[in-house]
Structure formats: C-alpha cells, structure tokens
Amino acid sequence: MNADQATPRNTAPGPPPADPAPVVIIGAGPVGVTTALLLARRGIRTLVLERHRDIYPLPRAVATDDEVRRILQAAGVGEEFAALARPANGLRLLDARHRVMAEFRRSEHGRHGYPQTSMFDQPELERLLREALARRPECRLRAGVEVTGVDPEPGGPVRVTYRDDDGEHQLRAEAVLGCDGAGSLTRDAIGATWQDLHFEERWTVIDVRTQAPVRSWDGVDQVCDPHRPATFMRVGEDRYRWEFRLHDRRAPVRELIAPWLPPSYDGKVDVVRETQYTFRARIADRWRRGRVFLLGDAAHLTPPFIGQGLCSGLRDAHNLTWKLARVLQQGGDERLLDTYESERKPHTRHLIRLAVATGWAMTGGQDGAAALRRRLLAAACRVPGLAAAAGPDLSPPLSAGPLVRRGTRKSLVGTHCPQPWVGRDGRRTRLDEVLGDTFTVLTATDPWPSLSALTHGLGAPAIPVTDLGDDGTLSGWLRAGRADAVLLRPDRVVMDVVPAGAHTFTNTAAWAPLLHTTRHPSPARCTATGREGLG
To answer: Helix (H, G, I), strand (E, B), or coil: what is residue 115?
Structure first.
C-alpha cells in the first residue's frame, strides 16, 4: 500500500488547499504525522507538507519504549500499534565471545502501562499513522511537494514557500514545525547549527527474514568487540536486524551473521535491506525562532545503541503540541513556548550521551585507553546488582524551569504519572483514557474548597484516586512522593504538588502566568498565495 492509498481523503494532488491550516508541519514521517494527530485532538488544524509521494517501504527505526507507546495512545493509535508491536526482554552487553557481561531487563508492564521495550517495523507504523491522519478532518497532507523557504516575519506569521507540479506557492501560518529530518531546511531557516557530541562511526545495517532457528533471547544484544562491534535484535516473528561496525572490507552477510545461526544451517536467508549509515551524536544549538520549531532529527541525532532516536522525536511532539495549542487557542503566554526547548534539550542530550557511552562500551573507542575502558566495563558489570541499579527507565525527569520546580530529589515534579488500568463507568480502561487531553489534578482524598477553586480556574478536573478504582498504583505513588495532590499537564508530567498536609500547590506563581489566558487569542491565521490565487 502506498501513501496515496493509505490516505485517500486528505492527500490532495493539484493546487494548494483553498482553506489552509494555522499550523504547517514540514515532513510526514512518524514525528510529523504524530504531531499533527496530537494537535488535531486539541482542535488545531494542520497542513503537512511532504516531499516524498509514498511511505518509505524499508525498515529503519525498530524499537520504542513504554513512554512513547503512551504518546501513540495519546495520538489515537495505541491499540493499532499494539497489534504490530512485539515486547522485548531488554538489553544485554556481550563480550567478543558472546558471553553475557551485563543484562538490563525490561518489564512487560512499565509505569506507562505498556512493555518497557517493544520492537516494530517502521513502515507499518507509518501506514497506521497515515490512516489515522486521513480520518482527522483537522489534518491535511500534501505529498510530493518541496518546501523551499521558511521565513519568520517579525511580530507576525511565518511565510512558507513550496513547489509542486503546478508551480511555486506561499503560505502564511501561525506556526511552522520542522520535522524534516537531519538535512532540515527549517534548521537552516532559523539559523541553528549542530553542536557535535563527539561520536561518528560508519556502520552496516542488515535486515533479514529467515525461518532459521536464530539464537536469540528476544531482546537486544550489544557485542562489545573492538574488532567487530555489533548489535543484534529480533524484530518480528521471522525478522531480525544486525548492525556491524566494519573496517576496511565488506564481509558477506552469511559470514557476519554466522555466530547467531546453527553451524549446520544452509537454508534461505532473505536480505530485506543492507545499507551503510554514519551514526552521529549531534544536537542543534537552538530549537526555536519565533513561531518556527525543530522536532525530531531536525533538532538532534543520536547513535541507535539504546533505541531512543525516534522516541526522542515523539517526545518532542508530545511536549510541544499542548503548549502550542494553549497559546493558539486559549491565549497562553508566548513564554510558554520557550519551555519546549528548555525541557526537551537537556533530556535529549542526556539520552544521546547515554547512547554514546553504550557505543564506547561496544567499541572501546579509538584511543589508547580503549582496552582499559573495556576491562573496567567488564569488571563493573560483575559488581552484584549493578545492572539492576542501572534502572529500567532510561528517561530522566525534566530539568528545572518555569513549569518544573523540584523541591527535593524525591519530588514528583518533572516526572510522569504512572498509567495503571482503572475503573470508570463500569469498565476497565487505561488512566489516560479517563483523564483525556486536559490538565488534571489527582488527589489522595476528596478535593478541598481552595483546591477546587484553583482547578476550576485552570479548567482541570480534580479526581480522587479512590474514585478511579486502580490497583493501588496511584495511591502508593502519591504516598511515596509525600503528596496529597498532583497537578498533571496534558502530557502527564507532574507540574506541581500539594505536599502532605500543606493544602496548597507549591509553585503556582511560576506556572500560572504562563498558562492562564492573558489576552484574547488571535485568529489562527494561515493564508496562501500563488499561481492559483489562493487568497
């Protein structure tokens, strides 16, 4: 199925739309389409511009975590994705002889309500996202167009120039979101440059289908061999991926994957894809200029060793969309948009550095201390409990800022609320399906008058966790955080807490000016001009 078949209703060839959208998204990969879906759930219309006519058919990203599966749930495709995802056991570090040095187990029941690691096929994910996009009247996709210019106008809208078979056209939009990948035109348009995080290696990636009894533990293996470091994972029922750093020669595929196959196996091995990538660690020095934003690979590049490349891009989408909707629809302060970069950039940098450290563990690096580092790693992995202490959750709390004021190390602020199954209206469902897309206050007891007044002003319902009929997850979480109540943002990050016995939130003065309506929101503008006279 190609992209036009997947999205017949809102993929429109021919002239630009006569009724453009207030937000233009450049790039219809997973990050761009998920961003459009999240905005649609908040009533924001989008126009997605994509230079390719069809979905790229070959596998690329193959792993995600439970937090990102929660984001896909928020985008409205959680159940569909569950049908094509495969839970994975976690990550192992192996030595050159494939002996286990460390094992980092992942649970099938993460705090976000999903397996902590899941394997999938990116073309399948992109197809279901495009199908979801086609069902949303707020979203319009134009494939086969080339964006040639993005020009923020001081104090006004953003001008986007693009070219299609009918010529060149211009749009003026309230906001432009650059989800246009590593070679981002949007990044150049806002004057952003790459900051090098000091990792660059050439690797070969091989995707295979085979009925062979491949030696696999249904997780990810990282082979820490300086002569031939490798990554291996089972992606599907008969699909596997290997990644190798090769030096001065290209080895045959069968030779490379032989350690994972029975010595006697001489059956069929179908190579779906064999290609070379340069793995890099980079982050843009700025992610925003006015109402133009960078998301995904346009803002950051990471080696794939911990499976967080696409995950970070989808976290970008979840963080930015509710803030942009608040500003466009409800007159939220423009400074709210500054918190996108201040929250996401340190978080992403942390995960990139973790991926780089994993890469060094695999390869030892290329300097004179490489052998010493490998010996120290092997010794550290033998320390009892170290692998468990590394923790199952790679995603750290958000850094301090106007929306994140952490009082103590154990504070819940900046962390995600867990998502258990709860009871509501006589049925069992995931917590977020009950909470919806708004701010919410969860309380350990019945709400008190001053709390109710504050939540009413914010448009946030106050829900006692005892009314949700969960299994004790939420009440135990509040007790552990010494909180009588928490204020959850739409992305389910804890924005503020009422400490036990305090009866009032601690950081209202910091976030209230950014969220409360301080002006009437301007009409969401997006006008178009061009050869067709779109007016």
So the answer is: coil
pLDDT in tens, 296-308: 999 999 999 999 9
Spatial CA neighbour of 74 closest among 42, 117, 26, 111: 42
Q: What pLDDT score does 359 carry?
A: 85
* Nearest one of 304, 392, 389, 308 to 344, comparing CA atoms: 308
Contact 243, 204 (CB under 8 A): yes
If one counts every other C-beta atom within 10 angstroms of the C-beta of residue 196, the result is 11
Decide: 138 and 39 in contact? Cβ < 8 Å: yes
What letter does residue 298 receive in the DSSP assignment?
G
Interatomic CA distance for residues 442 and 277, integer angstroms:
46
d(CA 469, CA 463): 11
DSSP 3-state assignment of 517?
Answer: coil
Closest-CA residue to 111 (of 484, 474, 507): 474
In the chain, the largest separation of any two C-alpha atoms, in whole Å, equals 74
Q: Cα–Cα distance between 331 and 518 in angstroms, integer?
A: 6
Question: b/e per residue, 170-180, with b = 16+ CB within 10 A?
Answer: bbbbbbbbbbb
Q: Residue 10: pLDDT band by 50, 70, 90 thresholds?
A: low
With both helix axes pointing from N to C terminus, report the angle between 66-74 and 309-330 in degrees, rounded to the nearest 10: 40
Rg (CA), the chain: 24
DSSP string, 448-490: PHHHHHHHHHHT--EEEGGGTT-SSHHHHHHHHTTEEEEEEPT
pTM of the model: 0.91
Please identify which residue in the block is written with the tokens 């989408």: 317
Q: Answer for the pair 143, 50: CB distance below 8 angstroms, yes or no.
A: yes
Provide mean pLDDT across the span 486-494. 96
Q: How far is CA 142 from CA 12, 78, 168, 298, 330, in A?
A: 6, 25, 14, 20, 28
Asked if the model's pLDDT at residue 522 lies above 50, the reply is no
Altogether, the residues listed in the chain come to a count of 535
Contact 301, 192 (CB under 8 A): no
Q: Two tokens at 39?
A: 């905005």
Which DSSP helix (H) or strand (E) runs through 510?
helix 508-515
Q: What is the pLDDT of residues 439-463, one digit of tens each?
A: 999 999 999 988 888 888 788 899 9
Residue-wise burial string across 458-476, b where 16 or more C-beta atoms lie within 10 A, e elsewhere: bebbbbbbeebebeebbbe
pLDDT of residue 185: 98
pLDDT one-digit tens code per residue, 90-143? 989 898 899 998 888 899 999 999 999 999 999 999 999 999 999 999 999 999
pLDDT digits (tens, 9 = 90+) for 17-61: 555 679 999 999 999 999 999 999 999 999 999 999 999 888 899
Q: Tell me the three state secondary structure of residue 186.
A: helix
- Cα dihedral 348/352/355/361 (nearest 10): -140
Q: Which two tokens stand for residue 468?
A: 């949700």
